[in-house]
Amino acid sequence: MRSMIQESADLGRVINSPVLSREQQVNVMTALCAKAKMNDLTTNFVGTVAQNRRLPALVGIINAFLDELSRRRGEAKAHVTSAKKLTAGQLKAVSDVLKKAVGTKLSLEADVDESLLGGMIIKVGSSMIDSSLKTKLQQLHLSMKGIG
Q1: pLDDT at 67
Q2: What angle do CA 108, 110, 115 make, to 5 degrees?
Q3: Euclidean distance between CA atoms 99 and 75, whole angstroms
Q4: pTM
């Protein structure tokens, strides 16, 4: 885990470094693509992004591409944040319920936020369902103060 965090920090430095030349950034990103066994088209694209000094925008580019791909496939995108990591069975159950509710294919992304204490937050498009214990406690706290 530490090595992944260190590699991520190192990659962040490469991406955001004004000190590294274009050629150095292209070389580093090309080597990373080769290590990850990415195809030539992807490697060339990342190299072009590096050559044009647009590496800080790469994450946004990837997310925009994935969003467009989901849209073309007719998929809705759902994001589930839970207090603990959900098992494969729990993720499938959530996915099945959401597919019925949305009525279309669904791309499910899951995160963990231990500060929720329990429950989960589900976002589908612009809709959000918050059944987290943290939110319920905040609402109770506000109502006890006479604000809510």
Answers
A1: 84
A2: 150
A3: 10
A4: 0.59
- pLDDT, residue 59, reads 87
Asked if residues 11 and 25 have their Cβ atoms less than 8 Å apart, the reply is no
36-56 pLDDT tens trace: 999 999 999 999 999 999 999
Tell me the H-state helices in 52-87.
58-73
pLDDT value at 6 more than 70: no
Q: What's the rounded Cα separation, in Å, for the pair 47 and 148? A: 53
Residues, the chain? 148
Between 10 and 9, whose confidence is greater? 10
Task: Report the alpha-carbon distance of residue 120 to residue 111 in Å, rounded.
Answer: 10
For residue 3, CA distances in Å to 6, 9, 99 come to 5, 10, 37
Q: Which residues, in sequence order, are bridge partners of residue 79?
A: 109, 123
In terms of Cα–Cα distance, which of 29, 33, 26, 31 is closest to 51? 26
For residue 108, give every residue at least 6 positions away whose Cβ sits within 8 Å of its Cβ, in sequence order, or none: 78, 79, 80, 91, 94, 95, 98
